[in-house]
Amino acid sequence: MSSLIRVVDISAFTTENGTRLSRESTALELVTALSGEGMVLVSGHGVSTQIQEAALESARTLFALPVANKEAEQVDDVYGTRGYLPIGEESGSSRHENKEGFSYGLETRSTTHQKVNGLRMANRWPSPFPPSGVKKLNDLYSSLCRVCLALTKAIGLALNADEDSLLRLCTESSEVSLMRCFHYLRSSEGSLGSSPHTDWGFLTLIMPDPDSKGLEVFLDEKWHDVRCSQDYLVANCGDFLTILTRGRLSSPIHRVTLSQEERVSFVLFFYPNFDTNLEDVGFSSADDLQSLSLFADQTLAGTGEKRDMHKAKFGDIMLNKWAQVRRKT
Ligand SMILES: O=C(O)CCC(=O)C(=O)O
Ligand SMILES: [Fe+2]
């Protein structure tokens, strides 16, 4: 475990035992870490080892399915953000990212692929994948959303002396957030797992294979390993939270390197409500936050549409960003 990245125990927010005093000191520790490194190891998160192991096992089952079955459910222009991400078909830069993934969100009962909005639609599971596997993945999704809501309360308490102050931006977060489960392959010439970037959303939670290597954070002009065990989830401040706090909390630059060992990880991109407007939360186009990945052009050709970001809805910005990192072969 990297000693640079602080551990914060958030049990004051995830159990009934938290007193006002313990919640205040937890909140302060959390915000101190997010204003410094921007990344924190969260303990006391309440996600059982059983839920974590079951989800990792289901992910391995999914990735082991025949390629044709996985590709039958791949992310495309019609289905938007959910489904299978074939190897090499996504990258945040011109480098080849040697990984495959499944992207999913809140399970809807709908049997059609009707979208509610570009971030809310039915999940797409390849066959054969049993309902018990889907349930295990969904259990992890809802557990990690609960952890993000607890973190949101803590951040609200530290910044505004009010636990509910940021929750109003997150009333539909559990419906529009995106879980991505990745299978990083072995290192090959010129490839990496994930190009250096900041995350675009409100908060990100990362749950990798316990004790696996690869996640790195850029601090003090150097890359540092972030090692993780089942006791901790890695939480990143996202670009939206940086905007919301006028830069007081900072979204960290991080990347994933590859090795000779394959790796599986779950990454929850916790989003604010789809319709949230950047201008309403204080962003102006003159802001000095242009280095965030949210504002970078991540298309290969460098012709990403520079939209009037401060007027746009957060959900639409996300759809545009996911389109920017698609690398259809
Ligand atoms: O898989 C990981 O450890 C992190 C991946 C990541 O940073 C991302 O997908 O944004
Ligand atoms: Fe990331």
What is the fold's blueprint, element by element?
Layout (H helix, E strand, L loop, with lengths): L6 E3 L1 H4 L5 H17 L2 E5 L5 H15 L3 H5 L11 E3 L13 E6 L26 H30 L12 H4 L1 E7 L9 E4 L5 E6 L6 E5 L2 E4 L7 E5 L1 H6 L9 E3 L6 E8 L43 H12 L4
Parallel strand pairs: 1-2
Antiparallel strand pairs: 2-10, 3-4, 4-5, 5-12, 6-11, 7-10, 7-12, 8-9, 8-11
Helix pairs in contact: 2-5, 3-5
The chain binds 2-oxoglutaric acid (AKG) and fe (ii) ion (FE2).
Fe (ii) ion (FE2) binds next to loops.
Can you characterise this structure?
With 329 residues, this protein is an alpha+beta fold. It is 28% helix and 18% strand. It has 8 helices and 12 strands. Strands 1-2-10-7-12-5-4-3 form an 8-stranded mixed beta sheet. The protein has a 4-stranded antiparallel beta sheet with strand order 6-11-8-9, with no helix packed on it. Strand 8 and strand 9 (222-225) form a beta hairpin. Residues 180, 182, 194, 199, 206, 208, 215, 254, 256, 265, 267 line the site of 2-oxoglutaric acid.
